[in-house]
From TrEMBL:
<dbReference type="InterPro" id="IPR001789">
    <property type="entry name" value="Sig_transdc_resp-reg_receiver"/>
</dbReference>
<keyword id="KW-0597">Phosphoprotein</keyword>
<protein>
    <submittedName>
        <fullName>Phosphate regulon transcriptional regulatory protein PhoB</fullName>
    </submittedName>
</protein>
<dbReference type="InterPro" id="IPR039420">
    <property type="entry name" value="WalR-like"/>
</dbReference>
<dbReference type="InterPro" id="IPR036388">
    <property type="entry name" value="WH-like_DNA-bd_sf"/>
</dbReference>
<dbReference type="Pfam" id="PF00072">
    <property type="entry name" value="Response_reg"/>
</dbReference>
<feature type="domain" description="OmpR/PhoB-type">
    <location>
        <begin position="127"/>
        <end position="226"/>
    </location>
</feature>
<feature type="domain" description="Response regulatory">
    <location>
        <begin position="2"/>
        <end position="117"/>
    </location>
</feature>
<dbReference type="InterPro" id="IPR011006">
    <property type="entry name" value="CheY-like_superfamily"/>
</dbReference>
<feature type="modified residue" description="4-aspartylphosphate">
    <location>
        <position position="51"/>
    </location>
</feature>
<dbReference type="Pfam" id="PF00486">
    <property type="entry name" value="Trans_reg_C"/>
</dbReference>
<dbReference type="InterPro" id="IPR001867">
    <property type="entry name" value="OmpR/PhoB-type_DNA-bd"/>
</dbReference>
<keyword id="KW-0238">DNA-binding</keyword>
<keyword id="KW-0902">Two-component regulatory system</keyword>
<feature type="DNA-binding region" description="OmpR/PhoB-type">
    <location>
        <begin position="127"/>
        <end position="226"/>
    </location>
</feature>
Amino acid sequence: MRIAIFQRDADHRQQLERVLTQCGHACVPFGDALTLARTLAASTVDMLVLDWQGSQVAGAELLRTLRAVNGSQIPVLFVSEDASDESVVRAFSVGADDYVGLPVCPSVLRARVNALLRRAFPDRYENMTIDAGPYHFDMRCQAVSVHGKPVLLSTTQYRLAALFFSNIGRVLSRDHIYAMVWGRELHTLTRTIDSHVSRLRLLLEIETPNGFRLQPVYKSGYRLLRLQDDNEALATEGAECESA
């Protein structure tokens, strides 16, 4: 999972990053709340680990801003030196999923983060298979089939496909995709992602007859759409317009 960390104190920030990286997560650390907010306006993550008291943006205001951009599904854990009852209660009242005070035991942090991620993304933690229309993914064997026919993918292609089919309908930014598939942050412009996406469309026949569309999202990244859900949304919008 890709986790954004905002923590004012550099030592605490490095400790949080170290603990979560050791769990296999990709971390994007920030020491400034405004930089975090600007970055996440164009980037996607799976979880937020935030300091409650920012130097320029208070925790409640920061959480509202990030929720508005990233959606309500993204779990938010506050890890802060401010462990007062007042701050904890206020954090939960504005939408926090959990709150712990510093210093925090690494094993406790790992347990809380994993619990929140399991709750937010149960399919990725509880199921070892993904079934979506004619597509079947066996996570143990890293194998995929379409209409029952195995499709041979490279390790990178499989990771990319599994990422999209684990996030149907969700916009994934380019840096998010690069971090989760290639294992490092994207710092320069590259056509690598586009080339792999184009090849994946052909290999897995991600097209209308199979019920899915893998589309680019302007100035962001890509989104895998289930066409039935897309059509239902359009039908609903049309009905609302007619009744208005």
